[in-house]
Amino acid sequence: MRFLLDAQLPPVLSKVLCGLGHDCRHITDWSDGEKWHDKYVSEQADREKRLLVTKDLDFYHRHMAFGSPRIRWLLTTGNGKKSVLCHLFRKHPEQLQQAFESSALVELLNPQLTRYE
Question: Which of 8, 14, 34, 67 could form a disulfide linkage to 55, CB 3.0–4.6 angstroms apart?
Fold first, then answer.
């Protein structure tokens, strides 16, 4: 799967996802990425056909209002240590893969995974 990680998520999560066999980029992979507005982040995800991974509820509202990002995406919520977040991805790779492939929105709350059709 192809992912674009938003700025609030740790860049190390990109390495975790790559280690699980995914094509993942973090917003900081671009020199000016952290300055991008939500609209441009959505457009970049659409352009590269990537699932947007974010903690920002504005993307949910943008998707509902404008249909962008057009592709399915993962919404992670809750604050915590980056090691805990990375552990959740490592612990449930098959469940996450299935959820990404079959759901319009996936919400990851420690330790719960919720899928929305």
Answer: 8
